[in-house]
Amino acid sequence: MTLPPLEPDKYRVFIKDLHIELCLGIKPHEILSTQCVRINLVLEARRSWRESPGDIEEVICYDTVARRIREMFQGRKIRLAEAVAERAAQACLEGDERIDMVWVRVEKLDAVKDANTVGVEILRRRG
Prior knowledge:
Elements: E1 10-24, H1 28-32, E2 35-46, H2 62-73, E3 77-78, H3 81-95, E4 99-108, E5 118-125
Parallel strand pairs: 1-3
Antiparallel strand pairs: 1-2, 2-4, 4-5
């Protein structure tokens, strides 16, 4: 997916290839055991600094976002990759009011024989 050009008063934070273990799918073997799922996120946020950020509170902390995503899916059973993407996007938008846009890709690494990955992508905006 190609993201739109970045506006001057905004910046992007990304998390690439976050691997989490969860029960994801509708097939019996997917319901009974966990599988590795790869999540990629791009968060577009309004800048809260003038020239250069001087404090962690002025920026979106990618570690906090990654921890939130991991915790929300830990021990969960989810039927569809689309639901994982929607919940991740919602958590990002609700987690910080400066975030205006979230792009999420969820990939199942071992779902289809002879395919590296399969998955979904979504783009959600605030409001």
